[in-house]
Amino acid sequence: MKEFTLDDLVRILRECADQDVWTEIELGGDIADQDFESLGYDSLSLFNTLTHIEHEFGVELSFDIVYTAATPGTLVKVVNEALPNNA
């Protein structure tokens, strides 16, 4: 299985964002250490993001990650640790 990257996460975040706020969300530059809240993502958008990641990458993620992986960089790390070839 391929590695889950920040680019993968940005693509999925864009797909899962509420269309009303999508144009206000800035996902360019180095967002790895910015918290999701400052990027404009609420818990519902993140739950949708996790579900999308689970289906696309074949991983099982705890929804507690929404509260513990506060930044994109942390979420990328958690997903990579959960990938089947890393389990």
From TrEMBL:
<dbReference type="InterPro" id="IPR036736">
    <property type="entry name" value="ACP-like_sf"/>
</dbReference>
<feature type="domain" description="Carrier">
    <location>
        <begin position="3"/>
        <end position="83"/>
    </location>
</feature>
<protein>
    <submittedName>
        <fullName>Actinorhodin polyketide synthase acyl carrier protein</fullName>
    </submittedName>
</protein>
<dbReference type="Pfam" id="PF00550">
    <property type="entry name" value="PP-binding"/>
</dbReference>
<dbReference type="InterPro" id="IPR009081">
    <property type="entry name" value="PP-bd_ACP"/>
</dbReference>
